[in-house]
Amino acid sequence: MKKSIKLSFIFITITSLLISCSSKDSSKTNSALGYNSAEKVYVPPGEYDEFYAFISGGFSGQLSVYGLPSGRLFKIIPVFSVDGEKGFGFNEETKNLLNTSFGFIPWGDSHHPDISQTDGKLDGRWVFINENNTPRIAKVDLSVFETTEIIEIPNTAGNHSSSYVTENTEYVIAGTRFSIPFPQRDMPIKDYKGNFKGVLSFLEVDPDNGNMNLSFQIMMPGFDYDKAHPGRGDSHGWFFYTTYNTEEAYSLLEVNASQNDKDFIAAVNWKKAEEYIKQGKFKTFKTNYAHNMYDESTQTATTKWIKEVKILDPADLPGLVYFLPTPKSPHGVDIDPSGEYIVGNGKLSADVTVHSFSKMIKAIEEEKFSGETYGIPIIDFEAVHAGSVKQAGLGPLHTEFDDNGYAYTSFFISSELVKWKLGTWEVIDRKPTFYSPGHLMIPGGNSGSPFGKYALVMNKITKDRYLPTGPEVTQSAQLYDITGDKMELLLDFPTVGEPHYAAGIPADIIKPQSKKIYKLEENKHKYATLSPSDTKVVRKGKEVHIYMTTIRSHFTPDNIEGVRVGDKVYFHVTNLEQDYDVPHGVAMIGANTSEILVMPGQTETFTWEPKKVGVWPFYCTDFCSALHQEMQGYIRVSPRNSNIKLSWSLD
Ligand code: CUA
User: I need a surface site. Which of 349, 375, 515, 628 has the fewest CB within 10 A?
Assistant: First the structure.
């Protein structure tokens, strides 16, 4: 017995030596991981990860919170889709967050999270994330890891070139992927050209509370606006958007939108836009969109309907927008930490095209234009081109940056991650990703100060990296160590939904500000009950309002009689706990909503419409103490015509 343990120990040691020797040969590191790689992602029990990663859920509509380097999943924050686990979108407090001009929308397609910044550095206050399908932008408050605001984006369809922030979070931006008739109307699709427009949106962000407000929109030609990034440093004040379908095709886009040798990166001078707004050079258009805001003190979301929007037309406003010719159907546009380089990832190109911001400014001053389209000047390609990374791979999609002058590009078709040097454009290293990658993320990669320790590469086309789970293959991310000349694959881990992008941040920035409880004395919820002796049950016609409290381990009241079939019963539950990590949940048999999960000091409301006569139980859904199973109660439901008076127990 002892002998075999010793032998296997020797075998492991030899194996790890072999692996660590061969890891110098980059061609072999990709098929097998060394034990040294395992150590690099191992976070011992009880210890914390170094980074938070916020990974979008794509068609799940949500935002997942992971730790890096371990790849451990901490939380799924409900954003655009209802969530029965937390009652999001089901309870009375949060359901207004999902209001839109199309009605209550229970599902969304979440894409690109971006963390708020101050002076070009991540400040960790909020994450903004866009909904692609029914265009919206949400704000998640990182002190509580909850969605606290969702604003609908009018005149937009396929809200894809969104939701990136400027270096002081002056704006979070949005852009339309699909051009649509402007204004929206009933018209033949074949009349697309010239009649369909693409709108870019600028939402100002209140520096104190992060609240968004759609300040203005820019009405662009009817191209598809795919991705965007802000300038920084000298290019602060500009925003850059990729376009494809500059052909303005409206059918069979895979062929008809791939005709032009070059499409454009649109450079938008938003400081100029602010001047034009001040000068009143906008047109006001009628619209109707929802602005949903969660109020922290009332703990309740309300919807405001906004009826007007300011539109700027670049054809009439010189200096507002320029086009930078970029091969070929570019997907990502990424700006390096200095703000000088504008990297266009032409998805049908073998090269990565890089433009220079300083050359762009010079070309504008010297009017080096090769033409114009819809009144917008097209800058001469040579006058703005800084260089290209030649034959870097096939199908470049996205680029992120470290803090040492290197860029990292994902290649969808050749399935690899390529490291190259800014300025010399030479390829330094390449590693296969084992699936067709889409986005990649370096913590702080969209800021002036990235943390170049890890690159997280996320799949587009899934591959069988894990045990099969039926026809739907697990979505995945891969973590690379990028501290050396050669990148090293450390870890695969599954993601929730399709990971369209991620935002990473050192845990030290977020951890100290993480809220532990809601203070009861600050609870201004309309139905808050701050003591068990204040609990009551009130009938208002067919509505029955239960003012309920929870504390380990009982509900007050716990037995209620006098409810009738056809009533609508509101459970307004205040969790009186003031200790960290003691939520209580409530669920009621036959409720057509979900449970609610009430945090310490919080009030939440769910509704139940009793349909059957009888005595029906409710119970706590969150294991709260050794007597959790005793945390229960009954509601007696009598026939509609019963005259049993409302009564309840208070012990
Ligand atoms: Cu309260 Cu379980």
Answer: 375
Closest alpha carbon to 504 in 57, 56, 148, 46: 56
- Residue among 574, 588, 597, 592 nearest 618 (CA): 588
Atom number, ligand 1, closest to the C-alpha of residue 621 = 2
CA of 650 to the centre of ligand 1 (A): 18
Contacting residues for 110 by C-beta, under 8 A, at least 6 apart: 56, 57, 58, 60, 61, 62, 63, 79, 80, 129, 130, 131, 132, 138, 497, 500
* 554 close to ligand 1 (CB < 6 Angstrom): no
- Is ligand 1 within 6 A of the CB of residue 631? yes
Q: What are the residues facing 181 on neighbouring strands?
A: 196
Q: Does residue 582's CB lie within 6 angstroms of at least one atom of ligand 1? A: no
CB 598 within 8 A of CB 87: no
The span from the CA of 204 to the CA of 171, in Å, is 4
Structure tokens at 168: 């002081």
Structural contact between residues 128 and 165, judged by C-beta atoms closer than 8 angstroms: yes
Q: Is 374 helix (H, G, I), strand (E, B) or coil?
A: coil
How far apart CA 220 and CA 199 sit, in angstroms, is: 6
Stated pTM of the model: 0.93
CA distance 143 to 286: 36
Q: Each residue of 302-348: pLDDT tens digit?
A: 999 999 999 999 999 999 999 999 998 899 999 999 999 999 998 88
Report the C-alpha gap between 548 and 528 in whole angstroms: 9
DSSP 630: G
Query: Could you report the per-residue pLDDT of 261-307, keeping only the tens digit for each?
Result: 899 999 999 999 999 999 999 999 999 999 999 999 999 999 999 99
For 230, 240, 291, the CA distances from 162, given in Å and listed in that order, are 11, 11, 17
- Sign of the CA dihedral with 621 first, then 624, 626, and 628 last: negative
Please give the angle made by the CA atoms of 351, 354 and 359, to the nearest 5 degrees. Answer: 145
- In whole angstroms, give the CA distance from residue 137 to residue 251: 28
3-state secondary structure of 278: helix
CA of 452 to the centre of ligand 1 (A): 43
Indicate if ligand 1 lies below 6 Å from the C-beta of 622.
Answer: yes
User: Sheet holding 376-379: strands in order across?
Assistant: 224-230, 238-244, 263-269, 321-326, 376-379, 369-373
- The verdict on the CB of residue 584 being under 6 Å from ligand 1 is yes
- Nearest atom, ligand 1, residue 628 CA: 2
Q: How far apart are the first and last CA of the chain?
A: 62
